[in-house]
Amino acid sequence: MAVTRYHKYVGELWEDLNLEELVGELSDFLLQSGFGYEEGDWDEDSLQALHDAILDALMRRGMLSDEDLQRLMDDADAMEQFLQKTVERLVREGYLKTTEGMPFHDPTQGRGGGWGQAGPPVKFELTEKGIDFLGYKTLRDLLGSLGKSSFGRHDTRDLATGIEASGPSKEYEFGDTLNLDVSGTLLSALAREGVKVPIDVDYKDLLVHQAEYQSSCATVVMLDCSHSMILYGEDRFTPAKKVALALSHLIRTQYPGDSLQLVVFHDSAEEVPLGQLAKVRVGPYYTNTREGLRLAQRILSRQRKDMKQIVMITDGKPSALTEDDGRIYRNPFGLDPRVVALTLKEVANCRRQGIMVNTFMLARDYDLVAFVKKVCEMSRGKAYFTTPYTLGQFILMDYLNKKTRTVH
Predict the structure, then answer these.
(1) pTM of the predicted structure, to 2 decimals
(2) What is the pLDDT of residues 67-86, one digit of tens each?
(3) Domain ranges of the chain
(4) Arch. (CATH architecture) of 134-152+216-400
(5) Residue 363 CA: distances (Å) to CA of 75, 228, 352, 389
(6) N or C end of the chain: smaller count of CB under 10 Å?
(7) Is residue 343 scored above 70 in pLDDT?
């Protein structure tokens, strides 16, 4: 008679990893902006670079026991298999995707049916799920560091009829939401007719609850991606990308009536879908603030919102212009009077259109400070002198505390 023996299943190391914790630990790598990469380094989108980042995260975070980590370090084949299986889990569970049309294989040449020496390396990129998760994690971390922050809507000083009552009742007028104050309506009818059955309720007895008027807001984040954002030994661009993702997650989940668009500006400016934000790298060397403002205005002109604002994140003074014929005029030395004058003209246009410009400064250069003060004076916006480490706190608190609201 055949005997079947059962043994306790012992899971593999890659199966026990907490992927959310791992993706969170890899956020700087997945959103990196070119900081720290020299010409001739391997492609940061290659699986080999991802393997190295995973190993570094495991060692830094202590996600494996010392015994398990040491065993992997002593066995190159086991380490290679562990990293490959971990990436396969990230792909299978939707955080990453590999190069379209290519089967998934470890990029190590000549191993296990891979591409071989002459084959193209497999690339990876973040999926929408991965981007959304990083936005959620960044938002949670930022709000946690701020203490208690209540989500809500953009409140103004006006009152309107709605579902959530927060003001005194008022007489019903045609067009009001029929959020009926039953007790007040009945008391009004009884005061007029006296106590009797049935109660004769007249039109003028109708009272409705009032709620705070909640306006909608259209926001354009203007993100400086000139080369200075990764110079001087500091990566300013990756934290700015994280903040944009967090703000996007906040708006999508808590302020569904609001809108958020992203504009990057350097020698010129272009709109970038938020789903492509992870791929954005720092670009040319100059700062065409004027072109960024012009594009932001065109985007906001299409939005039918009560409030419109531009959130500009920069570390450099304006140093470029787009001429009428499409040529780029550049002057990196000091504040060029012509560049400044035409840039401030766009700021004045923003004010005429009711668009507030709030500027978040990642540098304290004297010329830049003077320029930003003038921008705030003209647009009635605010300027915040911050660092990559506190940028998110400033922007989210500015958004949550309704500092950019208008009064109807």
Answers:
(1) 0.69
(2) 888 888 888 888 888 888 88
(3) 13-126, 134-152+216-400, 161-213
(4) 3-Layer(aba) Sandwich (3.40)
(5) 47, 10, 28, 13
(6) N
(7) yes
